[in-house]
Design brief:
The chain has helices spanning 10-22, 33-43, 52-55, 61-67, 104-142, and strands at 2-6, 26-30, 47-51, 75-80, 94-99. The chain has 148 residues and is an alpha/beta fold. Strand 1 (2-6), helix 1 and strand 2 (26-30) form a beta-alpha-beta unit.
């Protein structure tokens, strides 16, 4: 699972990146909002862990995410002093909030929750695809083109 971690504090990025890599995640970091947007385009991570300073920055990373076709991104964890509101929930992206300060175990729990929700969403999507294939095959065997 690809994770992009964005925060302006390089020491924080290094510590969290090492921790999540040790837990088996593929983690890239960004310490600037423009770098974050560039990495989002290039890497297409499933999870974005984002400091709330990036949310309200001049470039507004979350505004950019909601403005583009981002089928790759499943979850955003916003780290900050409060539970900031965002319009990403309307776009189908799972938005979670983690109030600073927090421990690495709390962050890992949030990532694991996002990972399990991502897996459930994949399974539901696969079941829906199989159902549509079954319906299409069943209709062609029957000789009809109506969908049931």
């Amino acid at each position: 699972m690809q994770i992009l971690l964005a925060d302006m504090d390089q020491t924080f990025l290094d510590v969290v990146q090492r921790f999540l890599i040790l837990k088996g995640y593929d983690v890239e970091t960004a310490n600037h909002d423009i770098t974050c947007i560039r990495l989002l385009e290039d890497l297409q991570p499933e999870i974005l862990i984002l400091d709330d300073a990036f949310v309200w920055s001049g470039f507004g990373v979350l505004d950019w995410i909601s403005a583009v076709d981002n089928r790759f991104l499943h979850s955003v964890i916003v780290m900050g002093d409060t539970n900031s509101d965002s319009n990403l929930s309307d776009s189908g992206i799972n938005v979670r909030h983690l109030v600073k300060p927090f421990g690495l175990v709390e962050l890992l729990r949030e990532v694991e929750t996002c990972t399990s929700e991502h897996c459930r969403a994949d399974k539901l999507r696969d079941l829906n695809i199989r159902r549509r294939c079954f319906v299409a095959c069943w209709c062609s065997v029957r000789g009809g083109n109506e969908e049931h």
